[in-house]
């Protein structure tokens, strides 16, 4: 059973808002949240990966709760962390894209109080109401002009001028300093954001080639690669760093392939990504040792997760996060809670949104989850040792494609509203138990399963649209404004490139599908 820590009660604040006139309880607990950007769960040993990418995380996971089916409700980066901050789906908080109207959260409007809903009900604000001092070490806000991320944090730090290209050693220097000054105190929440698995792959030369002798994942064969080579889309096999190779990037980041022209480049992609995971794992281990050195390791709750996963060839996306599929939306979630000896070390398979986990943390701290949140706590079932969650999940992508997906049982159904110039089928259905890398679209073979998935999506949509952000579907607005941000204005030049590289049939299909529309 997870026990709430001892509490003391401070005097009420004299702040003007009614919320701060209430009695605020404090808890004697420390929480370290290590947020490893773009971390695929199945590239960690504790989740079954065959390469030794994560020795420190794997050791930690042995005595922690491991959740196998946690998904970010909205991807990629900006929508995901906006959901985490607000506890709300993108269709409600307004953030589904990386540019345009729907890259900013909705504002309060006429009903806005002196303190906004975001200040009162953000995840870090709820942690503060539980009595924790909060700090985020991350350049996320600067990288995405997402300054709403700071709502509720007492303190924020970042590596100056890095904008997401900082390396783990630079972030660790800030985190170590903060822990040295504050780690022995009670009642804190520290968010440490490591970027190393994110493209461009940039593990230092000193790491060498740690996976050069390890086999590649066996699903990405030469046959699959060659098929992808003839297809279209940003980050596809012929242009796996955008819409065209970038020789200057190769010079600056030699681990980052520019084209997947043969199996040696497949290896370069996997080795480059996995080296980034290994770097992040090393510094996760250092943070654990720092807590141990301070004498607070056993009294600190530790959570490891990510903002989203990554496709490494799946759906012909090489080293990016463009779809609402299983590999992009699923995130690792490992949580160790002090004193929960009956739960630490167990694995849980129920479906949860990542925002359900943050809601659960609030309840475990004795707080109340705001009614406005879409995240639902499962603290009660967890305390009972039960593996209970949602029957299905609805997942969204709006920055590279416009897609919604339904994840249930062994299946994922993906509905594509804008394919980001990949020429995806409007409906894709994958049996993840037999096809975890989404090679075979079964939509045409199993209409009954398609009907089940579409029905679940339709019911969710009706419920969500009642109070949708700005009064309309944000994904439809993304399309009206010119499409997902990362593909806007790219089509004309890309059609030329497709014809110059022997893919005129792809160019013709894209022209027929989009030119009259745009």
Bin the strand percentage.
15-25%
Rounded radius of gyration (Å) = 22 Å
**Termini Cα gap:** 56 Å
H/I helix tally? 17
Oligomer: single chain
Mean pLDDT: 93
Q: Runs with pLDDT <50, length 5+?
A: 6-27
Can you characterise this structure?
This protein has 518 residues and is an alpha/beta fold. Helix content is 32%, strand content 16%. The chain has 17 helices and 18 strands. Strands 3, 4, 6, 7, 8, 9, 12, 13 and 14 form a 9-stranded mixed beta sheet that branches. α7 runs parallel beside α10 and α16 runs antiparallel to α17. The N and C termini lie far apart (56 Å). About 4% of the residues have low confidence.
Task: Please write out the topology.
Elements: E1 7-8, E2 26-27, E3 30-36, H1 55-61, E4 65-71, E5 74-75, H2 77-86, H3 90-93, H4 117-121, H5 123-129, E6 133-137, H6 140-144, E7 155-157, H7 168-182, E8 188-194, H8 222-229, H9 247-252, H10 263-294, E9 300-305, E10 311-312, E11 318-320, H11 326-329, E12 330-336, E13 347-348, E14 352-353, H12 354-364, H13 379-383, E15 392-397, E16 402-408, E17 411-418, E18 427-431, H14 447-465, H15 474-480, H16 491-500, H17 504-515
Parallel strand pairs: 3-8, 3-9, 4-13, 4-14, 5-15, 6-7, 6-8
Antiparallel strand pairs: 1-2, 4-12, 9-12, 10-11, 15-16, 16-17, 17-18
What distinguishing features does this structure have?
518 residues; alpha/beta; 9-stranded mixed β-sheet
Give a brief rundown of this model.
The protein has 518 residues and is α/β, with parallel strands linked by helices.
